[in-house]
Amino acid sequence: MNTIEFSSVSTAQDRRKKAYDKAVAVAKRNQSVLIIVSVLSISKLVGLGATQAGFGAVDQTVLDEVKEKMDRLVADYQKQAIQSGVSQVETSVSYGNPKTELAQVLPETFNADLIILGATGLNAVQRMVMGSNASYVVANAQSDVLIVRTAVAGDD
Q1: How far is Cα 146 from Cα 114, in angstroms, rounded to an integer?
Q2: Using CA atoms, how far apart are residues 129 and 139, in angstroms rounded to an integer?
Q3: CB neighbours of 42 closer than 8 A, spacing ≥ 6?
Q4: pLDDT grade, residue 51 (50/70/90)?
Q5: Helix 18-30 with 60-83: angle, nearest 10 deg
Q6: Checking CA distances to 141, which of 21, 39, 53, 107 falls within 20 to 30 Å?
Q7: What is the reported pTM?
């Protein structure tokens, strides 16, 4: 049986951490670079904060706070991955459309040959109206895509 090796594995930060755990395992097994990304969707941040500019306004203070929180979370994931035995870990926290960033921009930027994502973070109605990031990435990425539904064996 032929083995497939990946030199660069990209994973999006997800709340359930299953995709991250699998990406760490794949990166260790392949001795590859692990790229941990988080794409902040500005459309989900519109209208939050104390800005009195009206409908559709984005409060820069809120954006800065959310980005700082994500920077810390991704840095924690990076530290954990290194402690787990992944020798090279890169990170990226950016603003944009998560679908296009994950499918096209970040894989090109980091030369990722595998993208690992959680199955979905949306409920059925949200998936029907907007479509899931995972579905979009599977359909549009030039890299291989692994969709994670289960935890790494031995994890809770």
Answers
A1: 7
A2: 17
A3: 58, 63, 95, 96
A4: very low
A5: 40
A6: 21
A7: 0.81
